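Task card 7
Instruction: Convert sequence to structure tokens.
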Amino acid sequence: MTILPNLLRENRFTPELVPPFERKLFFEHGRRRLYLERFGVLLFLSAVIATMGILSDSTAAVIGAMIIAPLMTPIMAAAAAIVTGRMDRAARSLALVVAGALGVVALSWALATLYSGELSFDGNSQITGRIQPRIADLAAALASGAAGAFCMSRDDIADSLPGVAIAISLVPPLCVVGIALSAGEAEAAQGALLLFVTNMLAILLAGGGLLAALGLSAAATVKLRGRARRNAFVVIAAAVVLVAVPLAATSVALDGEARARSQAREEAEQWLAGTDFALHAVQVRGDSIKITINGPDEPPPLPALAIALEGRIGHPVAVELVTVRSQSQRVPGAGTEGPG
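Output:
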């Protein structure tokens, strides 16, 4: 029980640690122009890499984009500014995040519009994994936000930051928003945007909470006036609770679909038992079930399967059957004589 208090005490901020920590996050006066230039270049490149990786369903490319994406720095800067009561710094940092996010969405929209390849919102794992965020994504984002704050507060473990950047996805969801908008998929765009907002709020809440627990405001020798800091954290916490509602609803819906898919697969396999048909795929979306089979002749009567599915799942469902005809053909090999 004493591990956490000891950990916080042994890693608390001291006045001499605050200036180098702030130099990592706040780029003011003469450093601002150079920082904004580097920020823009890295954000542009990460957005291009992430968009191309998503369009081509390349996990490696998307991970590479996560590592070089610079959005986490201004979000963590906003969290640190709130902890120390510097709302002017927090406002500037959040304005940079908003501007960067809009730029990423616009760039990914343009790249997706020019893309000539095939794009599937059902079969692309880089898209499907980001348009239906769950409550587990919020839990992971909170832990990642705390980890990011801890890594930034300690120079001796700063080399762990690339892992944090991969764990908490910021640029890829924004790229999915732009790609979805270019394809007219508004629902998918909303889901990806919700994931980005969830991750950003998690960094602000968990990251700011950990920095406060490590004594950043006291070490910064900043005299806090009024209730601005408390009110800011109340708003952030309320926003986290607010986004948790659709995340929880999505989790429940997806868990129900997964259970229905497993039940539908079992019933379909029993329905096809003793026939020459094979079950190819089962898709569940809400109260609709799409079953794809392949075989040579006519399948068994579909009403029998529909009745069995409704009895197994426990409520009425719409069943769609797709039959793929299978045929067997043989072509003689090269040099083989055909019939005379």
